[in-house]
Amino acid sequence: MKKLPIVLLCLSLMIPSLGGLASAQEKAKPAADQKQEQQGDADLAPNAVSAVLIDRDTGAILYEKNGHKALPPASITKVMTMLLIMEALDKGEIKLTDKVRTSEYAASMGGSQIFLEPGEEMSVDEMLKGIALASGNDASVAMAEHIAGTEKAFIDKMNARAKQLGMDDTTFMNTNGLPVSGHVSSAHDIALMSRELLKHESITKYTGLYQDYLRKNSNKPFWLVNTNRLVRFYAGADGLKTGYTTEAKYCLTATAKRGNMRVIAVVMGAPSSKIRNQEVASMMDYAFNQYDSQPLYKENQIIKTVPVEKGKQETVDIVVPYRFSMLVKKGEKAEQYQKEINLKADLKAPVTKGVKIGEVLIKKDGKTVSTVDLVAANSVEKAGWWELFKRSTRKMFGG
């Protein structure tokens, strides 16, 4: 990582009940070396081709089996489709109440579907239900066309977003995961995009539903039952996405939350849906039985206030942009940690809200176990010459 001029502020911290494994901010990308001690030689997913288990907040890998093996992801592809939909909602490009018109092409999709007819309109909210619960291939294409104009343009967005997330094992060829040559991902990459999707906490309003209806007040009501049975039968489960094709076999990216801890478990290539669900449940059981998540910082918590050279405002607050937690093994004793706060030495206007100003390093035994970005809480414009002149005069005469 390129080193910036920094001011080092080393603070010792005794953290009660923390045995220290990993810490990170909720929306940070998992560090490649944040692999935790696994369950001895036991294989939590013996029948799956590949599997990954991560802590959502820290991104720490708790279990991995062939994590980077490129495989067909089937309908787990729709995690990226849903991510781009949620991001479009956040940006105001679309609204949940917007009507989405179904093209002939979208209506022609085979496999899992909500049986959209050419010209039929549904709201974005209804389309999301159709994708999240029923794994609707037709709804996925309809939303892709609504957002990007064509499915191809949307696929380009999917691949660009995958690249931004560091999904190096992934190439998307469609929006829904129907079998096509070259359409691949890995358990590791699926965990990455699942973690990114869960930044949009409202998504679990859809993925966590067990059943619902579309066209409820029409003469053709359509009963939706979640293809992910764990949302009904596993305590705390509220997502995310199943997948199946003859080539891919049975796949699942699942998430569950208990207390402060949310985990993501990914299984690819299981021989049956029953075994897939059992192995995902075993992985999540392992995480909840072995680890705890301890919050360290609140969202937007102020870490320091620093001067801004030549700014309209003379200072800016530096904050942790998202919740910051530490993952620890249950039953471990308190240990000594150090927080090292690294900031840019000289901050000059203009400063943009959210721009990275530095980072907090959490260290154990001299080794960095995780980092979290520090950002500007607000924007600071550059001051005009007259304001700078008055400021200099006040300082000169002690005013």
Automatic annotation (TrEMBL):
GO terms, biological process: cell wall organization; peptidoglycan biosynthetic process; proteolysis; regulation of cell shape
Residue intervals of the Peptidase S11 D-Ala-D-Ala carboxypeptidase A C-terminal domain: 291-382
Keywords annotated in UniProt: Carboxypeptidase, Cell shape, Cell wall biogenesis/degradation, Hydrolase, Peptidoglycan synthesis, Protease, Signal
EC number from the UniProt entry: 3.4.16.4
List of residues binding substrate: 241
Active-site residues per Swiss-Prot or TrEMBL entry: 75 (acyl-ester intermediate), 78 (proton acceptor), 135
SUPFAM superfamilies documented for this protein: beta-lactamase/transpeptidase-like, Penicillin-binding protein associated domain
A Pfam family annotated for this UniProt entry: Peptidase_S11
Pathway listed: Cell wall biogenesis; peptidoglycan biosynthesis
Molecular function GO labels: serine-type D-Ala-D-Ala carboxypeptidase activity
Entries under InterPro entries matching the protein: Beta-lactam/transpept-like, Peniciliin-bd_prot_C_sf, Peptidase_S11, Peptidase_S11_C, Peptidase_S11_C_sf, Peptidase_S11_N
Signal peptide region: 1-24
Annotated Gene3D superfamilies: D-Ala-D-Ala carboxypeptidase, C-terminal domain, DD-peptidase/beta-lactamase superfamily
Family membership noted in the UniProt record: Belongs to the peptidase S11 family.
Role noted for this protein: Removes C-terminal D-alanyl residues from sugar-peptide cell wall precursors.
PANTHER family listed in its UniProt record: D-ALANYL-D-ALANINE CARBOXYPEPTIDASE, TRAFFICKING PROTEIN PARTICLE COMPLEX SUBUNIT 12
The protein, known as: serine-type D-Ala-D-Ala carboxypeptidase
Species name: Aneurinibacillus migulanus
